[in-house]
Amino acid sequence: MQIDKLRGKELDQLFKAVLSLENLEECYRFFDDLCTVNEIQSLAQRLEVARMLQEGKTYHKIETETGASTATISRVKRCLNYGNDAYTMALDRIKPEETEEVTE
Questions:
Q1: pLDDT (average), residues 3-32
Q2: What DSSP character marks residue 35?
Q3: Which of the chain's termini has less CB crowding within 10 Å, N or C?
Q4: Which residues contact 87 (CB under 8 A, 6 or more apart)?
Q5: 54: Cβ–Cβ under 8 A, 6 or more apart, which residues?
Q6: Is 44 helix (H, G, I), strand (E, B) or coil?
């Protein structure tokens, strides 16, 4: 993993802090303090790109709907194909939540 080069006390602390968050409101507050608006938008955009790639959407459709560059789309696709399967894991875990929100 690329992130292994960064592994250590500070990164452990960050991930433990994220794992300690209990709901969406706490996430909004934490990430608002932690990141710039652009950083948050970039993270959210990458996850949306991954979701759209999994659905088989074209680069053009993804670029149009998300505003992501082809470089970003390619990077996310590379992670989906050759990475740690973390995008897939996370997206699979939130699918039931998305279904619940639609039916409520």
A1: 96
A2: S
A3: C
A4: 47, 50, 54, 76, 79, 80
A5: 80, 87, 88, 91
A6: helix
